[in-house]
Design brief:
heterotetramer; A mainly alpha (338); B alpha/beta (330); C mainly alpha (280); D alpha/beta (268); B: 330 residues; alpha/beta; Rossmann fold; eight-stranded mixed beta sheet; 11 helices; 31% helix; globular; C: 280 residues; mainly alpha; 0% strand
């Protein structure tokens, strides 16, 4: 029962995100050309350092780089070419891994990042919101105070530092879980049960470090929302006509959760940022680790490629959240009467 | 006593703050008869909204019942609801025997579910058959002048006036005997105000509710539907009287001042002129000694500063708390 | 007026706790390097030593004193945090105020820009920009971080000012012949002051956390020691997997303590100035 | 001669960025206010009465139409600072919400200082100015001791509204636009505010426009009533003819719906 207003809402978000994407890719285009000291020449000088042993590769890469950045052409042609390529999914050729395409390097690592971030974010969201709601419901009891204090502290722990603590404690001290990677060295990823169990073992610590530290923020926000909604007119009225407390609390929970869904969209960026660094700490072979590798060798085509892909995924996720929001909030689905 | 629905004896309810108490309801005694409309009138801060909380025993910290008793007639016999806890009163009487139309009725319905679902949940909460209650609501929707198909909608799809009527329909669905309406018309335009009053009275005429307490600052509105009027000032009842007598001849100086400050589009008002009561209502943390109105009263006597005037009946059905009428007693 | 405003803060338990912790770290950053005169970059043969009387927090792989690093790191991290917060506050206030005062097309354009920056992950843009800079001073890092964390603040300021501007005292000041600028400084800015201060505190957090993140992937300040740089060294030298807890625990703990105390301060202010949340 | 002449005043608000919507808040409104006259614009929320007031006060630019005050087109002829200041001095306002009329960060007398600074003959020293402020407070029945140095939350709504009238006493404007000046204060203080405004008219010859939803108030105070609905003036006349003998159907409905004190509605 998609009404006109819902379609309009979705369309508006879509247009907005598309514009945002164009702006973001434009930044990618402008940066290397605008920053003083011409980073492109840096790239070239860097190139010879990286691939000293293979002069042929250098020359090829150099030529390639000139072509890819379209140097020598007027800037607007460069821009049109750049955007055109970006929309086609052609992100150029890596320098470090020459002659492999940037896209071919990124695609295999994306699943690792997705598998880590998606479940961790959703679990943290659910747990955090439940805890926050519980605290608000038992306002001013020790449960509330405990949850609030805990959340305030936990929400300020960077994922990656919690990761370090976990590695040290559960991996190094107790020896319960592996300390790095996504699977044991030497194994080849396949669909066997043994590999799954091995990957799972490696998964627990990075997963937990994201879940635990992301939970705090949700709990704090949800607690405030629920306290606010508990004092709202509909909650009071429902009580006056004899609605059971449990039911009223479900109403309050539902209505408090709606803004938290929008909050999820807004927080995706910082969750991603934190998760990328967590991958580095765990040597987890995801996008963050690839980005780290690219940064240490100043492989600019690869850096840009990772950036473009990540930004696009954040916008896509944003759009999905918006879509879900439009589905679950009737005020958007049907359109509020002014 | 047999046709009394609600009886309050020397009710006192304070907002107990850290160091001080706000004496918002301070020694109120009155009764509400079956089949009547009583208007509770007073200016902001006189304790009239607190009174509605007290009637429901809706004591939420820091509001505390300090003393007094409230009785409600349930199935022919009186229950002392002031002896029960808030949760017990809520469980036993809210929505069933007593109900409310809140000040902010526009936002009173759960916004993100359809009204039909809401009624289903209400049935569940009261242990009733959902289908039956929905049918009853449909009937009630017709009675308050709403399309029955609107029950399948979300509250925000209705206009403000219609939402208010939906609230009336839902809140009276279990035929409670007492309805308390707290400033129900202040958010409506005058045309919808009148519609609201009509709906209210039709519910009473059909016997869906027995008695109505209308809490408001607007005497002219009360005048349209009330049988009796309670005038409150600074946490106390200063006058309680049938409405026509009160308008004819207000007894308490405060009542008189209040009446003469009302501006309605009537030639009588122009002739009468407008009166101001000097000063401002006292704060209720540390109210004036004796009669709380004495600092603003044009007829102030020495005794008013020292002693508190009791609320006494000086004519059949007319009670006033003022020393001007001390002689007329006995 | 100012005193009567902040007085209730010191009756709030949360505020006192948060404020005390923050002051302790502020003093560590300010006075630590003054009293503990050990060069944090001096390499010694006492490398990878656990805490001992001569090195209260042990040493790193190059024999550098961790406590000295920590004092200098806290100082730089706080400095970056403050700097980034000032930049964000200025941009956010400017955009939010301009939007609210000018309305119309100016408002539409500025809010579109704000929403674009809001939706774009700031840490990723910071990474991209930082990667192109060969030399990154502490100030440059603060600038990169400060440039992208203002959008939510600008939006909130705009909303608050819009509501303030519908208040009648603003009309009365206009009718008294106030210029736009005088109106902004006398009537508008004071009303957003407490909110701006609370946001400033959170911006400091953003700056400190952002620096740590950037440093960890090797894009932090190229000179000097910050808490993030300490963590980066620890990760590079595999301090975690080699069990050298004295190396990576202190800087991380400091980040958490500073940012959590600031968050508590901001929450307490919200409680004090926002009556709905006040506990009875 | 009329003090204020409003001719074909129209205000259209544009909403939305991508898909624009237009709302006609005020449509082709014309009326005049004479010297010493009290005029009421009566209407419910959304009738355009407040928008009209804001345009007269030069707070909101009209889409079309003209407003002449003392013969000057206030939106086109007030180009220099001096003439604008002169206009501000001569046309003033009392607003609805006494709480919103004061910036909580300043003592309440700030609003009186603003008026002093607007005067043509600004007092030569501070002492003189303070005397002027005190005198204006006495005029509205307030004791300066209770007011000076206080912050808005320390005084009552009735007192706040009186100080707004004290502001008018300092300026002695030719026209006061009173936007619902009594709707948010208690009934028992309402009469005082109305009397003070009437006194200004008696002593200074001030013209007053009451912007109100309260037909009772309009009936009581005005010389002329204009009834507005959906941005248009639907009825005009002296209070008795508008209230006792309305001609437009909306006015009839309005008068019929307002609860009276001395009459009970038949159809409830």
């Amino acid at each position: 029962m998609a009404s006109r207003s819902a379609v309009k809402y979705i369309l508006r978000r879509l247009i907005f995100l598309f514009i945002t994407y164009v702006v973001a890719t434009t930044i990618v285009f402008i940066l290397p050309r605008a920053i003083p000291g011409n980073p492109l020449s840096q790239i070239l000088s860097n190139l010879s350092r990286v691939a000293q042993s293979n002069p042929e590769a250098i020359r090829a890469a150099e030529k390639n780089l000139m072509e890819e950045f379209g140097l020598g052409k007027p800037w607007y042609l460069q821009y049109v070419e750049f955007i055109g390529k970006a929309l086609k999914g052609d992100l150029g050729t890596s320098i470090t891994y020459y002659p492999r395409k940037v896209m071919d390097l990124i695609v295999p690592v994306i699943p690792w990042t997705l598998v880590l971030i998606l479940p961790a974010t959703i679990v943290a969201w659910i747990l955090g919101n439940s805890l926050g709601a519980l605290a608000a419901y038992r306002r001013n009891t020790w449960i509330d105070k405990g949850v609030l204090t805990g959340s305030l502290v936990v929400s300020q722990i960077p994922y990656y530092w919690l990761g370090m603590i976990f590695i040290f404690f559960f991996g190094v001290k107790l020896g319960w879980l592996p300390v790095q990677g996504a699977y044991s060295q030497g194994t080849i990823p396949d669909l066997s049960w043994a590999f799954f169990m091995d990957a799972l073992k490696h998964y627990i610590l990075p997963f937990l470090s994201i879940v635990v530290s992301a939970m705090g923020g949700w709990a704090i926000g949800m607690r405030l929302m629920v306290i606010y909604e508990l004092g709202s007119d509909y909650a009071n009225f429902s009580e006056y006509i004899g609605m059971k407390d449990k039911r009223i609390f479900r109403y309050v929970f539902r209505n408090s959760l709606l803004p938290q869904v929008t909050g999820l969209a807004l927080s995706l960026g910082s969750v991603l940022g934190g998760a990328l660094i967590t991958e580095i700490v765990f040597n987890y072979p995801g996008t963050g680790y690839l980005l780290f590798k690219a940064l240490t060798t100043l492989d600019y085509p690869l850096i840009q490629g990772v950036f473009v892909i990540l930004i696009a995924s954040v916008y896509l996720a944003n759009f999905i959240v918006d879509f879900v929001y439009a589905l679950i909030d009737p005020r958007i689905r049907i359109g509020q009467e002014e | 006593m047999e046709n009394v629905l609600l009886k309050a004896e020397n009710l006192r309810a304070y907002y107990k703050l850290e160091k001080v108490s706000v004496k918002a309801v301070d020694g109120l005694s009155f009764e509400i008869y079956e089949d009547e409309v009583v208007g509770v009138v007073g200016e902001s801060g006189c304790g009239k909204t607190t009174l509605s909380n007290v009637i429901f025993m809706n004591m939420v910290k820091p509001l505390t019942l300090v003393g007094g008793k409230i009785f409600l007639k349930v199935n022919g016999s009186f229950e002392e609801i002031s002896a029960l806890s808030r949760d017990e009163v809520k469980e036993k009487f809210w929505g069933k025997e007593m109900t409310i139309i809140p000040q902010s009725a526009m936002n009173a319905l759960m916004p993100t579910i359809k009204m039909e679902r809401y009624v289903q949940h209400l049935a569940e909460s009261h242990g009733l058959d959902a289908r039956e209650l929905i049918d009853k609501t449909l009937q009630r929707f017709k009675e308050v002048g709403l399309e029955t198909s609107w029950l399948k909608r979300y509250p925000f799809e209705l206009s403000g006036g219609m939402r208010q009527r939906a609230v009336i329909a839902v809140s009276t669905i279990l035929n409670p005997s007492l309805l308390v309406a707290d400033e129900p018309t202040s958010a409506l335009d005058v045309v919808n105000q009148k519609v609201f009053l009509k709906v209210l009275m039709s519910l009473k005429r059909r016997g869906i509710v027995k008695s109505i307490i209308l809490i408001t600052h607007d005497i002219a509105t009360v005048r349209q539907i009330a049988d009796r009027m309670i005038i409150m000032y600074a946490g106390k009842i200063v006058e309680l009287s049938p409405i026509d007598e009160l308008l004819e001849k207000p007894l308490h100086p405060y009542t008189e001042g209040l009446l003469n400050s009302v501006l309605t589009p009537e030639p009588e008002v122009k002739k009468r002129g407008i009166v101001t009561i000097p000063g401002a209502p006292p704060n209720l943390i540390d109210p004036p000694s004796g009669c709380r109105f004495h600092p603003r009263c044009p007829h102030m006597m020495d005794v008013c500063k020292e002693k508190e005037p009791p609320l006494v009946e000086i004519e059949p059905g007319r009670r006033v708390a003022c020393f001007l009428y001390a002689g007329e007693r006995t | 007026m100012f005193l009567t405003m902040i007085k209730p803060l010191f009756k709030n338990k949360k505020f006192i706790i948060g404020f005390s912790i923050f002051i302790i770290f502020l003093l560590m950053g300010f006075l630590g390097p003054v009293f503990y005169r050990v060069d944090p970059t001096e390499m010694t043969w006492d490398y990878e030593q656990p805490p001992s009387p001569s090195h209260p927090l042990g040493t790193d792989t190059y024999g550098r004193d961790i406590l000295a690093q920590l004092f200098h790191g806290i100082r730089s991290s706080l400095y970056i945090g403050f700097l980034a917060a000032i930049i964000s506050l200025v941009i956010g206030t400017f955009i939010g105020t301009l939007s609210a005062v000018k309305r119309g097309l100016v408002d539409d354009t500025l809010m579109a820009v704000t929403n674009i920056v809001l939706t774009t992950p700031s840490i990723l843009i910071a990474i991209l920009i930082a990667s192109y800079l060969k030399v990154r001073s502490i100030e440059i890092v603060a600038l990169i971080l400060g440039l992208f964390q203002w959008p939510w603040f600008a939006r909130a300021i705009r909303a608050q000012l819009m509501s303030v501007m519908s208040r009648e005292y603003v009309n009365l000041s206009i009718m008294a012949g106030y210029s736009d600028l005088r109106l902004i400084f006398e009537d508008l800015i004071p009303t957003i002051a407490t909110y701006a201060f609370m946001s400033f505190v959170l911006f400091i957090n953003g700056g400190i956390m952002g620096e740590a993140g950037l440093s960890l992937i090797g894009l932090g300040p190229t000179r000097g020691i910050s808490l993030g740089i300490m963590l980066q060294w620890a990760v590079l030298m595999e301090a975690v997997r080699r069990g050298m807890w004295w190396w990576f625990v202190p800087p991380g703990l400091s980040i958490v303590a500073i940012t959590a105390s600031l968050l508590v301060i901001s929450t307490a202010m919200d409680e004090v100035f926002n009556p709905r949340l006040r506990e009875e | 001669m009329s003090r204020l002449v409003v001719k074909n005043l129209t205000k259209i608000f544009t909403l939305g960025f991508f898909s624009k919507r237009y709302v006609e808040a005020v449509k082709n409104v014309s009326f005049e206010v004479k010297e010493r006259e009290i005029v009421s614009l009566v209407g419910e929320s959304g009738s355009g009465k407040t928008t009209t007031a804001r345009m007269i006060l030069r707070l909101l630019r009209p889409t079309s139409g003209t407003i002449h005050f003392e013969g000057t087109d206030i939106w086109n002829d007030l180009n220099d600072k001096e003439s604008l200041k002169d206009f501000r001095r001569k046309v003033h306002a009392v607003f609805q919400d006494p709480f919103a009329s004061y910036n909580p960060f300043y003592p309440v007398e700030r609003t009186l200082w603003q008026a002093i600074n607007l005067l043509e003959n600004t007092p030569s020293n501070k002492k003189e100015a303070i005397e002027l402020i005190k005198e204006s407070l006495f005029r509205v029945g307030l004791d300066p001791k209770d007011i000076l140095g206080k912050y808005p939350h320390q005084i009552s709504g009735g007192q706040k509204q009186r100080i707004m009238i004290a502001r008018c006493w300092i300026l002695r404007p030719l026209l006061i636009v009173a936007d619902e000046p009594t709707s948010m204060i208690d009934a028992s203080s309402r009469g005082g505010i109305i009397k003070l405004l009437e006194e200004l008219r008696e002593k200074e010859g001030t013209s007053i426009i009451f912007i109100t939803h309260d037909l009772g108030l309009a009936y009581y105070v005005s010389d002329t009533i204009y009834v507005m609905k959906n941005g248009e003036i639907v009825e005009r006349g002296d209070p008795d003819s508008v209230v006792l003998n309305p001609s437009h159907s909306y006015t009839k409905l309005l008068v019929g719906s307002i609860p009276k004190l001395y009459r009970k509605m038949e159809d409830i």
